[in-house]
Amino acid sequence: MRVLLTGAAGFIGSAVFEALAAEGHDVVGVDLMLEQAHGVSKPPEAVRQLDVRDADQWGELLHGIDVVCHQAAVVGAGVTVSDLPLYASHNDVGTAALLAAMHARGVDRLVLASSMVVYGEGRYACPEHGRVMTGLRAVEALDAGQFDHVCPTCRRALDWELVPESARLDPRSSYAASKVAQEHYTSAWVRQAGATAIALRYHNVYGPGMPRDTPYAGVAAIFRSSLERGESPQVFEDGRQTRDFVHVSDVASANVAALNAVVSSPPRPYSAYNVCSGRPITIAETAALLAGPEGPRPEVTGEYRLGDVRHIVASPELAAAELGFVASVAPEDGVPAFASAPLRE
After folding, report:
1. Among residues 132, 135, 57, which one has the least CA distance to residue 101?
2. Please, what are the averages of pLDDT over each run of 10 residues along the chain (345 residues)?
């Protein structure tokens, strides 16, 4: 297949590029080379520098394309409210411009990079009273060190459950809102254009080539940078908040599987899938695995960030059943290896 890959020079995009090329696909890579992700680096030789918002540039690039793999986005939770226009411009407008250009040129297959942040909080249940819909945690409770959601009936701490793709979407950050918007634009395009698309909801991605410690980096890279400075990783809350860390090589494999599915016989015109390891781990355990037996011990600070979710752990079942995707790198193997993996400056 001839694949147009946006965000091709990024952390995830470059891994996807390599995986597609290894499968024998003809990959056309583009990337804006945003400073937040790339610093002042120039694009690799195989990648053309392009702003996805500029629809006038798409004509030549979309010629002969069978499917688009859209990885380009401003990532991270958003540092301040003033970041809202940044996310809306690059992620929302960029996706809308790309979809319009694809329709104009008869390209009707898309794989979209989405994120687990579209869910907001995870899924919770009380052992006695069943499933509970949660809202924002009260500042008073957080200040008192009470980090768990509690049952409104018996006030017991709620247990987390796996989140399926059918869960409600409840974005809690600028980035999350933009990812929901990308999915909605895509599903609307599918209906209006008679097209086919798959959205991949990545969970916490880590691995070689991850950006070094910036406000937009993932927690694994932030912990890693602390360790390189000889400092203890700073773990917020009580460290027992649970996540799913998925290796970038597995994310690349999920994209290959999605591209194969979207051009053959997808189960629906538009589908979303969790991309996760299927092996939940706490934030404190993640920091300890990175530190290793000889490194500085992680420090659980009790601090918190408003808008952070307590637990978010995905169900891998639908991706396994319909895409044939099952992650191969377990966090207990991949996270320690990440401690010495090269990072992007």
Report:
1. 57
2. 96 96 96 73 85 83 96 78 89 96 96 96 96 93 97 96 96 92 98 97 93 69 89 96 97 98 92 97 96 93 91 97 97 94 81
In whole angstroms, give the CA distance from residue 303 to residue 295: 22
Structure-block tokens of residue 183: 């999915």
Distance CA 43, CA 152 (A): 52
Q: What is the dihedral of CA 145, 240, 205, 177, to 10 degrees?
A: -40
129 to 109, 125, 134, 157, 185: CA distances (angstroms)? 44, 7, 14, 12, 37
Report whether 36 contacts 74 (CB < 8 A). yes
Element (H, E) at 29: strand 26-31
* Distance from C-alpha of 256 to C-alpha of 12, rounded to nearest angstrom: 13
Q: Are 249 and 319 in contact (CB under 8 A)?
A: no
Give the separation between CA 96 and CA 63, rounded to whole angstroms.
19
- CA distances 308 to 69, 117, 125, 289, Å, are 29, 10, 19, 22
Q: Can you list the pairs that 16-24 forms with residues at least 24 positions away whose Cβ atoms lie under 8 Å?
A: 16/69, 16/71, 16/251, 16/252, 16/255, 16/256, 17/46, 17/47, 18/252, 19/249, 19/252, 19/253, 19/255, 19/256, 20/69, 20/255, 20/256, 20/259, 23/256
The DSSP H or E segment spanning 124 is strand 123-126
3-class SS of residue 49: strand
5: exposed, middle or buried (Cβ count in 10 Å: 0-12, 13-18, 19+): buried
What is the Rg, in whole angstroms, of the alpha carbon atoms belonging to the chain? Answer: 20
Question: What pLDDT is attached to residue 116?
Answer: 95
* pLDDT one-digit tens code per residue, 16-42: 999 999 999 999 999 998 866 666 577
